[in-house]
Amino acid sequence: MVITAAINPFGSSWKVMGLVVRKEVASYTSEAILEELRFKLTSEKVLKYIGSRVYALWIYRIFRASSVLVEPAEHFEVSPDPDDNKFFDVTYSAKADVLISLDKQHVLKLRDGGERKFSLKGGTSFMFSHQQNSEDLRF
After folding, report:
1. Are the CB atoms for 46 and 6 separated by under 8 Å?
2. Tens digit of pLDDT for each residue in 108-135?
3. Residues 101, 117: contact at Cβ < 8 Å?
4. Cα atoms found within 13 Å of the Cα of residue 20, Cβ hemisphere only
């Protein structure tokens, strides 16, 4: 979502980032997620869309400063893509109500039917795509 927001500051991902920066919703992250984010934001693939390493690192710093850093004690293997599991680890450890993902191939398929929910060890959270209305994030 952060990378999509950086590429398109007029889209729904940017609106969600605005909620995070204004502290209208809580954002949780981990060192593993931040490491991947920094790597991807400064990759040639992303830089060709956003144009500037300085801008990429500015977005990274804003997200890091606006998010609560957690150290997951539990680790899950729920996604066919092992790199996605760290997002579930953070969601569970932070007791987050919502996980936002753009990954239609793996993550969003893990929702319970049309309920937009998923469960980890008895805890239930909602899972939204970037296309969900940002108003849904304010419970």
Report:
1. yes
2. 555 566 666 656 666 555 555 544 444 4
3. no
4. 24
Pairing of strands 117-120, 123-128: antiparallel
Q: Which DSSP symbol is given to 85?
A: H
- Say what the pTM is: 0.80
Distances (CA, A) of 69 to 11, 32, 42, 91: 26, 10, 21, 11
Chain position carrying tokens 């981990």: 30
- How far is residue 128 CA from its own chain's centroid? 10
pLDDT digits (tens, 9 = 90+) for 94-112: 888 877 765 555 455 555 6
Residue 122 tokens, joined: 């008895």
Q: Residue 102 class from Cβ within 10 Å (0-12 exposed, 13-18 middle, 19+ buried)?
A: middle
